[in-house]
């Protein structure tokens, strides 16, 4: 089962609990309408910042939403409402969304193609000289920092609804989140797992690791293409 | 398969008595009794530093070190031949076997050969590793001298560069955690599990996968360590959990919580103890091999744990 079908099936589980398949399709459609036009109740169109395909915007620090798990996205929107994720731009929009709206836009963005689709899951030894790769795959245990991929999955492609994909996410956004955990403006992680890690990361590590994940999908496909050329 | 000598049961009893004695009587001046299992690690800070991986030499020895490191982190490459569950060595020996108080390999290496009560004989390092395959990996051990075993031994040898031989080092094993005064309780542990562990290991204890890759290891069920593994003992799991879990938050649980949650996890079903194959009954297996803090053979929730012939995916040609 690849990542795509897994995400779709987890969506099905979510919607299967309360609704039928057509209702799920309706939710995506409804979510698309909100994403493109706003909900008419104070939440403006998501695409104005997050882009027409939910690709986000690196310069603005707006995250990619396409392909993120619906459960993760709706938790974030609820966190903006309850203040465990403080963000002056997002909070009013999240407060203007109904519970149903939140489910709908989350389902819609989860249904879009993400950057982390079909990344390899097989083990690859990390190169000690590549500091970012080492941190991603082996961690920095002298400073009690587990490898990022120990929770975020192989090549940072995300695990379940709780551990979001990092691969293909904008570096500016990832760095902003690590800083938000450090300064306490984000505290919606389970058991403060991420807060402690963010606090122990150095500025240099934050710069390296966010750039690493932002470019990882293209790096991996470049490596795969190079590998194919070598073996005719 | 072997029948156990009568002396073995006696040895088990003596061993249990001695574990507590040796824990209190152990000091560097005391002559070590080699007929009891390894003494607890001395207290104090673990100061030993294994070499950096950038220092692995570029030659055949180095290639074997890397091969061993890869097997240690990705033991699943032996799935279906020597491994029959979802575990990797590095699940319980964090940072690829480098982490103090997470049973680091640099501290284990110099302690073998050593007597083990578990099989009542002197074990070489190779035999000790084979034991991990039989129980923790619910598997069939690679043969002595096989490349897999040589690779693992070479990796441990390299990690132990500069470490003393036949001398217990601080940080070895899992730091012993005293049993709480009020005992431990799996029902309290269920709450700790739900709050602290389920987010990664799942409320069903099956862990989580991405594609074929197991990211968070199963803690019970067919994918977990079997009823013979050291980790199924409540004291061992409590010590591991206290110093290492939740990942990135070591020593954050109280001693009581660590014991309770270890009891909760280990009061669930898992693949049968492979030694059961050679025993007449569950009672005999329990009596002979399970005189320790574990739930094997116990009634939990109206069900007797270990009362089944489910050996997980292990086809059973291991002995």
UniProtKB/TrEMBL annotation, chain A:
PANTHER family: BLL4483 PROTEIN, CBB3-TYPE CYTOCHROME C OXIDASE SUBUNIT FIXP
Binding site for heme c 2: 148, 151-152, 194
One annotated Gene Ontology cellular component of this protein: periplasmic space
Entry superkingdom: Bacteria
Pfam families documented for this protein: Cytochrom_C
Keywords: Heme, Iron, Metal-binding, Signal
Residue ranges of every copy of the Cytochrome c domain listed in the record: 26-113, 134-217
Sequence positions that bind heme c 1: 46, 49-50, 90
Signal peptide residue numbers: 1-25
PROSITE patterns reported for this sequence: CYTC, PROKAR_LIPOPROTEIN
Record PTM: Binds 2 heme c groups covalently per subunit.
SUPFAM superfamilies cross-referenced by the UniProt entry: Cytochrome c (SSF46626)
Cross-referenced InterPro entries: Cyt_c-like_dom, Cyt_c-like_dom_sf, Cytochrome_c4-like, Cytochrome_c_Oxidase_Subunit
Molecular function per GO: electron transfer activity; heme binding; iron ion binding
UniProt-recorded name of the protein: Cytochrome c553
From TrEMBL, chain B:
Signal peptide start-end: 1-25
SUPFAM superfamilies (UniProt xref): Cytochrome c (SSF46626)
GO MF, one annotated term: electron transfer activity
Pfam families linked to this entry: Cytochrome_CBB3, SoxA-TsdA_cyt-c
Cytochrome c domain span: 75-160, 184-269
Chain positions covered by the region annotation Disordered: 287-319
Keyword entries, A-Z: Heme, Iron, Metal-binding, Signal
Protein's name according to its UniProt entry: Cytochrome c
């Amino acid at each position: 089962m690849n990542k795509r079908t897994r995400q779709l099936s987890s969506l099905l589980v979510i919607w299967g609990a309360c609704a039928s398949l057509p209702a799920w399709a309706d939710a995506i459609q409804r979510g698309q309408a909100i994403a493109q036009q706003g909900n008419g109740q104070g939440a403006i169109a998501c695409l104005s910042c997050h882009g027409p395909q939910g690709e986000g915007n690196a310069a603005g620090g707006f995250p990619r939403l396409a392909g993120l798990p619906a459960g993760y996205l709706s938790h974030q929107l609820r966190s903006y409402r309850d203040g465990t994720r403080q963000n002056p731009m997002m909070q009013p929009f999240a407060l203007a969304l109904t519970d149903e709206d939140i489910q709908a836009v989350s389902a819609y963005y989860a249904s879009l193609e993400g950057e982390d689709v079909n990344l390899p899951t097989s083990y690859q030894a990390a190169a000690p000289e590549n500091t970012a790769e080492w941190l991603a795959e082996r961690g920095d245990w002298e400073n009690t920092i587990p490898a990022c991929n120990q929770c975020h999955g192989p090549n940072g492609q995300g695990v379940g609804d709780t551990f979001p994909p990092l691969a293909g996410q904008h570096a500016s956004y990832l760095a902003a989140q690590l800083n938000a955990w450090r300064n306490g403006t984000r505290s919606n992680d389970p058991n403060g797992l991420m807060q402690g890690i963010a606090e122990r990361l150095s500025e240099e590590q934050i710069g390296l690791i966010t750039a690493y994940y932002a470019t990882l999908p293209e790096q991996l496909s470049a490596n795969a293409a190079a590998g194919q050329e070598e073996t005719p | 398969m072997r029948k156990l000598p009568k002396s073995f049961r006696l040895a088990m009893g003596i061993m249990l008595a001695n574990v507590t004695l040796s824990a209190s009587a152990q000091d560097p001046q005391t002559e070590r009794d080699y007929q009891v299992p390894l003494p607890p690690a001395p207290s104090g800070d673990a100061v030993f530093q294994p070499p950096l991986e950038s220092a692995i030499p570029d030659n055949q020895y180095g290639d074997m070190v890397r091969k061993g490191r890869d097997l240690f982190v990705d033991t699943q490459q032996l799935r279906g031949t020597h491994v029959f569950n979802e575990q990797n060595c590095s699940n319980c020996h964090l940072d690829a076997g480098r982490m103090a108080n997470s049973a680091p390999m640099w501290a284990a290496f110099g302690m073998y050969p050593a007597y083990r009560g578990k099989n009542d004989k002197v074990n070489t390092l190779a035999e000790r590793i084979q034991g991990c395959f039989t129980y923790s990996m619910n598997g069939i051990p690679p043969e002595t001298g096989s490349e897999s075993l040589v690779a693992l031994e070479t990796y441990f040898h390299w990690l132990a560069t500069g470490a003393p031989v036949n001398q217990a080092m601080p940080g070895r094993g899992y730091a012993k955690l005293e049993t709480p005064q009020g005992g431990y309780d799996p029902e309290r542990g269920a709450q700790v599990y739900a709050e602290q562990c389920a987010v990664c290991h799942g409320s069903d204890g099956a862990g989580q996968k991405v594609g074929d890759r197991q990211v968070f290891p199963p803690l019970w069920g067919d994918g977990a360590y079997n009823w013979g593994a050291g980790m199924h003992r409540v004291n061992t799991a409590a010590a591991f959990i206290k110093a290492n879990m939740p990942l990135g938050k070591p020593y954050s649980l109280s001693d009581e919580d660590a014991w309770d949650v270890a009891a909760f996890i280990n009061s669930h079903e898992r693949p049968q103890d492979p030694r059961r194959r050679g025993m007449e009954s569950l009672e005999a297996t329990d009596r002979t091999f399970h005189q320790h803090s574990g739930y094997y053979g116990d009634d939990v929730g109206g069900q007797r744990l270990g009362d089944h012939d489910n050996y997980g995916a292990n086809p059973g040609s291991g002995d």
